[in-house]
Amino acid sequence: MHEVTQSDAERDWAALAADIKRWAAELGFDAAVIGDADLGPAAEQNLQAWLAAGNHGEMDYMAAHGTKRARPAELVPGTRRLISLRMNYRPPKARDSEAVLADGEAAFVSRYALGRDYHKVLRNRLQKLAERIEKAVGTFGYRPFVDSAPVMEVEAAVRAGLGWRGKHSLLLNREHGSFFFLGELFTDLPLPLDPPLPQEHCGRCTKCIDICPTQAIVAPYRVDARRCVSYLTIELKGAIPVEFRPLIGNRVYGCDDCQLVCPWNRFAVDATESDFAVRNGLDDVSLAEVFGWTEAEFMQKLAGTAIYRIGYERWLRNIAVGLGNAPGTPAVLAALHARRDDPSDLVREHVAWALAQHAERTRPAPNK
């Protein structure tokens, strides 16, 4: 906890806030804003309603901290301000997303996961920012967060003017769309607040709701994670419900559909951070090829990426679904047959489903 001293009382906090934003830019962040630790009653009410409806699925950590998620000062006692920071992630040289999605034999990986794990990148930069602030003010209370604790990061960013919540529930910015990561630095410094935007800019548009392959956006601003492709391919530990498998298409890790269709992403800016550059050609790789990786290859190629977190078994599970939805080419069928007797029950079950899909499509129509 930062103890306010006489020098603090005389400090030019506005100048410090300006310095913090400049230091953030020097560390590779594309924007930084300062918001209050009080997120307001609506944030807590919306969270409780979402949890009560079971929309979080198996993500028990969403409910584990109770009201602390909506009360930063209870999560980290002494917190006065939330510094919200944005870093663009769209790789500048990645194969066009629409082209990959249209290629039934290709494996689509959400653009944010093509490079280094963002948790590592942003946490490291947030720590460096805190250390830079410490040089200026002395010891102070802080804690960095990068999608790793019960923090309502979109709500915090909205209240500080970094953008507005789109109907897909992601943060939107008029000049930068939504292809960016968010990070927060909780602090006990009494920094001046940045104002929220006067209004949101989605209007009557429902493109994100309409395009969702599994209709997971059940109402404007509300996503039922149990239906979401990102949840199904990343967070869900067991079998993917059969009803959703044909809808997943060739999306093997995450889903960008709601962002790709959003008109505001005409203004999205590519990443300048080299850590987010495409690794191992994952922007343009076939389902059959990645399904053939051994566990050692998976670990070697994907170490340091967000994909590594789901593990080899779920990676194969996801690809099996993609292969089940792919054209019945010799390469696709050979890849599936090669894993019919996979050691994993989870993988075998999804391979069996995929082969059954192909068998059904090639079965002659009954005579009338």
UniProtKB/TrEMBL annotation:
Binds 2 [4Fe-4S] clusters per monomer. It catalyses: epoxyqueuosine(34) in tRNA + AH2 = queuosine(34) in tRNA + A + H2O. TRNA binds at residue 237. [4Fe-4S] cluster 2 binds at residues 212, 228, 255, 258. The active site is at 147 (proton donor). It is found in: Cytoplasm. [4Fe-4S] cluster 1 binds at residues 202, 205, 208, 262. Gene3D superfamilies: 3.30.70.20. Keywords: 4Fe-4S, Cobalamin, Cobalt, Cytoplasm, Iron, Iron-sulfur, Metal-binding, Oxidoreductase, Queuosine biosynthesis, tRNA processing. Pathway: tRNA modification; tRNA-queuosine biosynthesis. Residues 193-222 form the 4Fe-4S ferredoxin-type domain. Its EC number is 1.17.99.6. It is an enzyme of class 1 (oxidoreductase). Its main location: cytoplasm. GO terms for biological process: tRNA queuosine(34) biosynthetic process. Cob(II)alamin binds at residues 69, 147, 171, 182, 230, 255-256. Its cofactor is cob(II)alamin; [4Fe-4S] cluster. One of its GO terms (molecular function) is epoxyqueuosine reductase activity. One of its GO terms (cellular component) is cytoplasm. Monomer. Catalyzes the conversion of epoxyqueuosine (oQ) to queuosine (Q), which is a hypermodified base found in the wobble positions of tRNA(Asp), tRNA(Asn), tRNA(His) and tRNA(Tyr). Belongs to the QueG family. This is Epoxyqueuosine reductase. It comes from Chitinimonas arctica. The lineage of its organism: Bacteria, Pseudomonadati, Pseudomonadota, Betaproteobacteria, Neisseriales.
